[in-house]
Amino acid sequence: MNPNEKFVMDFLKMLENRKSSNELEKFYHPDSEQTEFPNTLTKQLTVRNLQDLKLASEKGANILTKEAYEIMNLYSFENTVVLECIWKGTLAIALGNLKSGDQMTAYFAQIFELKDGKIFRQRNYDCFEPFS
């Protein structure tokens, strides 16, 4: 595993165990931009900067009690890492036909472009299993 791949793996571990949205600062470049393409939860293309990501993290902490990433494929070239994974989130609240304590599942493809040793550009293609 090269240093960029290890960095992305460390990032995912942080997401699984984070206690504060401030932990994102260790991984995201100050000028970062994350793009989430439309999916079941995010109905339109959404672009977030670091502050937006921190706010989304805080909001997510009220919705999920736990999340986990199972890596299916990990590729890299120069400053880019491409990740394919299965995400599982345990709900703190009811959502659709799922109740608190149930698990949501999604299939993610994520592209990370690194700059100065941090995530500079990130694109998420998230595909959720039906839950409504």
Short characterization:
With 132 residues, this protein is of the alpha+beta class.
List the helices and strands and how they pair.
Layout: H1 3-17, E1 28-36, E2 46-48, H2 50-61, E3 64-77, E4 80-91, E5 103-115, E6 118-128
Parallel strand pairs: 1-6
Antiparallel strand pairs: 1-2, 3-4, 4-5, 5-6
List keywords for this structure.
six-stranded mixed beta sheet, single chain, 47% strand, alpha+beta, Nuclear Transport Factor 2, Chain: A
What would your notes on this structure say?
- By secondary structure, this protein is of the alpha+beta class.
- It has one domain: Nuclear Transport Factor 2, Chain: A.
- It is 20% helix and 47% strand.
- It has two helices and six strands; from the N terminus they run αββαββββ.
- It has helices at residues 3-17, 50-61, and strands at 28-36, 46-48, 64-77, 80-91, 103-115, 118-128.
- Strands 2-1-6-5-4-3 form a six-stranded mixed beta sheet, covered by helices on one side.
- A hairpin with a 2-residue loop joins strand 3 (64-77) and strand 4.
- The longest helix has 15 residues, at 3-17.
- The chain is globular, with a radius of gyration of 14 Å.
- The mean pLDDT is 96.
